[in-house]
Design a protein that fits this description.
Order of helices and strands: HHHHH
Bound molecules: heme C
Distance between the termini: 46 Å
Strand content: under 5%
CATH superfamily: Cytochrome c/b562
CATH topology: Four Helix Bundle (Hemerythrin (Met), subunit A)
Shape: elongated
Number of strands: 0
Largest sheet: none
Length: about 140
């Protein structure tokens, strides 16, 4: 039952994440076709989060593991790209990479409950980091 509630929450969160991501993409694409490397990597994150959800849904643990690994590597790459990251940013970034590593391990162990929970935690961390960035940006206005 707990897992059922979790997956429903997850699915609902994902609809929000992917649909708002889509809108943002359309808007951005209209304005300028040129994305920064960070923006491209971030969009890849969306794709891999979706692949993790698909893997969990269809019992494809190899896919979950591969996308978990990609997410961890993308996060490491993007953290190198950030100029003057705050201590909070670094903490959130490290958390995300640890959650992705947990996801990889749980996928290898075929532990679907733990992998589902990892995906929820990663979703929360995406939002946490973006909110942090908005707060920092607002402070500098
Ligand atoms: C540790 C911080 C951090 C985490 C965690 C994080 N992001 Fe981001 N995200 C950023 C930064 C920084 C930007 C702004 C990139 C830019 O505009 O250069 C961004 C922007 C984005 C964008 C907009 C890209 C564009 O085209 O403007 C998307 C989509 C995105 N992130 C998806 C995700 C997803 C999905 C996750 C979780 C799986 C995630 N991010 C986790 C830091 C983070």
């Amino acid at each position: 039952m707990r897992v059922f509630i979790l997956s429903t929450t997850l699915a609902a969160m994902f609809v929000v994440v992917t649909s708002s991501g889509g809108e943002a993409q359309d808007q951005k694409l209209d304005k300028s076709k040129k994305l920064t490397s960070n923006q491209m990597l971030m969009r890849d994150k969306l794709v891999h989060m979706n692949r993790v959800l698909e893997g969990i849904t269809l019992d494809k643990f190899d896919q979950v593991e591969a996308s978990g690994k990609m997410l961890r590597m993308i996060s490491r790459a993007t953290s190198w790209h950030i100029v003057n990251p705050t201590a909070q940013y670094k903490r959130i970034s490290t958390n995300f990479q640890e959650q992705a590593a947990d996801l990889e391990r749980h996928a290898k162990e075929q532990n679907i409950e733990a992998a589902t929970l990892d995906l929820v935690r990663m979703n929360i961390t995406c939002t946490q980091c973006h909110q942090h960035l908005r707060e920092v940006a607002a402070r500098h206005k």
